[in-house]
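User: Please fill in residues for this 193-position structure.
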C-alpha cells in the first residue's frame, strides 16, 4: 500500500523514469508451523510478547494499514512461491498488496494454499489454483532462500527489495513509509539525470 502510493506519486513527477521493484523471498522463522500459528501465542513463544510490532503498527496506521486484524503468524512458503510466479506476469506488486491486506487487515491465514490461490486469482495470476495445488516452484524457492541477494547483499530480513529506477539500483530491507519510498525513488532518478 505504501509502496503503491509512492510509485503513483513518483510516476506523476517522473513519468519517463522506468521503475522495477523485485521482491525477494525470506522466511523470518523457517520453524513456523506449515499452517501458520496464532499471532499472540507465536509472539509470546518467540519474543515474550508483541511489543516489537508497536512502531510498525503505528506507521501502518498513519498510512491507512493499521494491522487491525492480524490473527496468524504466517508460514510464507506458499505466498513466496506464488509471488515468484506472479512476478513472471508483472503482478508481484498487486499480489503482495493483496496478501498483506488479507493477513493484517482481514484476519486471513496466508499460510494456506487455498488462501494464497484465492489472492492470486483475484489479482489475475493465471492458473493460480492449479499452481498452488501442486508443489511447483518449491525447489526454486528453496534455492532463492539459500542464496538470494539484493543490491549485492545477502537477503536477511523481510521485506527485502531491490529497487531499480532508470539505471540506478539498490537493495534494502524493512518496511518504509510512503515518504521514505518516494525519497528513495527520487534519489535513484537523480542518479539517472
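Assistant: Residues filled in for all 193 positions:
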Amino acid at each position: 500500500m505504501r509502496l503503491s502510493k509512492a510509485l503513483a506519486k513518483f510516476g506523476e513527477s517522473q513519468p519517463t523514469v522506468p521503475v522495477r521493484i523485485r521482491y525477494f523471498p525470506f522466511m523470518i522463522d523457517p520453524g513456523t508451523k506449515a499452517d501458520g500459528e496464532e499471532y499472540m501465542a507465536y509472539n509470546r513463544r518467540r519474543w515474550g510478547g508483541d511489543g516489537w510490532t508497536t512502531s510498525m503498527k503505528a506507521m501502518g496506521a498513519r498510512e491507512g494499514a493499521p494491522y487491525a486484524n492480524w490473527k496468524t503468524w504466517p508460514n510464507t512458503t506458499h505466498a513466496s512461491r506464488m509471488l515468484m510466479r506472479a512476478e513472471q506476469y508483472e503482478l508481484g506488486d498487486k499480489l503482495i498488496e493483496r496478501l498483506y491486506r488479507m493477513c493484517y487487515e482481514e484476519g486471513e491465514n496466508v499460510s494456506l494454499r487455498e488462501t494464497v490461490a484465492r489472492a492470486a486469482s483475484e489479482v489475475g495470476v493465471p492458473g493460480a489454483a492449479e499452481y498452488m495445488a501442486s508443489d511447483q516452484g518449491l525447489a526454486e524457492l528453496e534455492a532463492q532462500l539459500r542464496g538470494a541477494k539484493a543490491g549485492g547483499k545477502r537477503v536477511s530480513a523481510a521485506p527485502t527489495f531491490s529497487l531499480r529506477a532508470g539505471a540506478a539500483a539498490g537493495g534494502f530491507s524493512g518496511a518504509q513509509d510512503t515518504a521514505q519510498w518516494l525519497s528513495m525513488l527520487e534519489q535513484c532518478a537523480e542518479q539517472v539525470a
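For context: Residues 137 and 143 are 10 Å apart (CA to CA).
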